[in-house]
Amino acid sequence: MNMPGEWYDSLAKPWFTPPNWVFGPAWTILYVLIGIAGARTFEQSRASPAMIAWIAQLVLNFAWSPAFFGLQLPALGLAIIIVLLLSILAFIGLSWRRDLVSSALFIPYGLWVGYATALNAAIVSMN
């Protein structure tokens, strides 16, 4: 399983690192929003650029934990999360005119992943 553990606990982390208990509730809410946006996009246009961006962000989202925690490679995690953030922003942009609700549902996700990107970058630079 790719969960924080002894290795993660041993890393130097920046002052803005949240407590571990924050991640579970935050990701639960975000995955609900991601799912709703994905379902709406799928119902409206299964082969749209927005749907492709949605699928890309999901693949990248799932790839981050094994890279960062499983392989214990924060730099690889950083590369993945940067592309993840770009795919989230692409989804927001591609959905904006077609489905403002789906686009808006991704804004908290984009903010969280932006924050996580800064956290990941700080961990890379500190270790």
Describe the protein.
The protein is mostly helical and 127 residues long. It has one domain (21-126). Helix content is 76%, strand content 0%. Helix 2 runs antiparallel to helix 3 (49-70), helix 3 (49-70) runs antiparallel to helix 4 and helix 4 runs antiparallel to helix 6 (107-126). It is elongated, with a radius of gyration of 15 Å. Keywords: Membrane, Transmembrane, Transmembrane helix. It is a multi-pass membrane protein. It is found in: Membrane.
Features:
single chain, elongated, 127 residues
- Cα-based radius of gyration, to the nearest Å: 15 Å
Helix share bin: over 70%
Main sheet attributes: strand count, strand direction, barrel closure = none
Mean pLDDT: 95
The gross shape turns out to be elongated
Please indicate the percent range of residues in DSSP E strands (runs of 2 or more).
Answer: under 5%
Briefly, what is this?
This protein has 127 residues and is mainly alpha-helical. The chain contains six helices and no strands.
What's the topology here?
Elements: H1 6-10, H2 23-44, H3 49-70, H4 74-95, H5 100-105, H6 107-126
